[in-house]
């Protein structure tokens, strides 16, 4: 589906727009006989093997937690990008790392669980999951790492011995996947309501809606503008899944412009896949390739206002 962002994003004292920015989302669920039939008769309904969607041995709980944390990270990157581009104040606070998954038959199994917040390793506080991973991977087989965690509001210490990963014996660890735990405060304040949405794919559109409310004028120029793409460090727009389904959703919602990740012009980029779907459904919606947030803003600033 395609959903207007103005009711979801609220910047204190922000400008209104004549047009609208829309995020596009793909719904997923366990396949049954009805969804199987729908996929057989509808080109843009898909059935995937579960291993294509979830990590190996990932539970429902782990998958849902991972998606929600990806959304939280996406929101923070989107807010940071918009405020940075608009020249407004923001502060990012790092609080540790979240456990998003636990690998079977590794030391963390039964000791850590998705949602645990790791605040320190061997007494050292880290500012990113990369720093944490680097610290642990520098240990030798059998070495112990002491993790300070918070679970259900309580702090505790867990000691684990590192061991090699089955998939890559040259690497050692405790067997967890991680996402950064950070928060952002801004001036003016911004609220992004995403209780029912997971994953990182709305990052670009969040940034554009926030930026439009922060700055004078109206980037939409009166158009209905849909799009997708992660918002990564350095304003880079990253690729997402389900691009062709999102083209169908945006067209049904009446969008006139769709911003698609260009991936540096790759032959199999999201943009190229979007063009294929757009041609197939014979939409009049304009598909625009985007590599960076600044590029998206520049394109929109160059639009003539809709009469």
TrEMBL record:
<dbReference type="InterPro" id="IPR008269">
    <property type="entry name" value="Lon_proteolytic"/>
</dbReference>
<keyword id="KW-0720">Serine protease</keyword>
<dbReference type="InterPro" id="IPR036034">
    <property type="entry name" value="PDZ_sf"/>
</dbReference>
<dbReference type="InterPro" id="IPR027065">
    <property type="entry name" value="Lon_Prtase"/>
</dbReference>
<dbReference type="InterPro" id="IPR014721">
    <property type="entry name" value="Ribsml_uS5_D2-typ_fold_subgr"/>
</dbReference>
<dbReference type="GO" id="GO:0005524">
    <property type="term" value="F:ATP binding"/>
</dbReference>
<comment type="similarity">
    <text>Belongs to the peptidase S16 family.</text>
</comment>
<keyword id="KW-0645">Protease</keyword>
<feature type="active site">
    <location>
        <position position="201"/>
    </location>
</feature>
<protein>
    <recommendedName>
        <fullName>endopeptidase La</fullName>
        <ecNumber>3.4.21.53</ecNumber>
    </recommendedName>
</protein>
<feature type="domain" description="PDZ">
    <location>
        <begin position="96"/>
        <end position="153"/>
    </location>
</feature>
<dbReference type="Pfam" id="PF05362">
    <property type="entry name" value="Lon_C"/>
</dbReference>
<dbReference type="GO" id="GO:0004252">
    <property type="term" value="F:serine-type endopeptidase activity"/>
</dbReference>
<feature type="domain" description="Lon proteolytic">
    <location>
        <begin position="196"/>
        <end position="303"/>
    </location>
</feature>
<feature type="active site">
    <location>
        <position position="246"/>
    </location>
</feature>
<dbReference type="InterPro" id="IPR020568">
    <property type="entry name" value="Ribosomal_Su5_D2-typ_SF"/>
</dbReference>
<dbReference type="GO" id="GO:0006508">
    <property type="term" value="P:proteolysis"/>
</dbReference>
<dbReference type="Pfam" id="PF13180">
    <property type="entry name" value="PDZ_2"/>
</dbReference>
<dbReference type="GO" id="GO:0004176">
    <property type="term" value="F:ATP-dependent peptidase activity"/>
</dbReference>
<keyword id="KW-0378">Hydrolase</keyword>
<dbReference type="InterPro" id="IPR001478">
    <property type="entry name" value="PDZ"/>
</dbReference>
<dbReference type="GO" id="GO:0030163">
    <property type="term" value="P:protein catabolic process"/>
</dbReference>
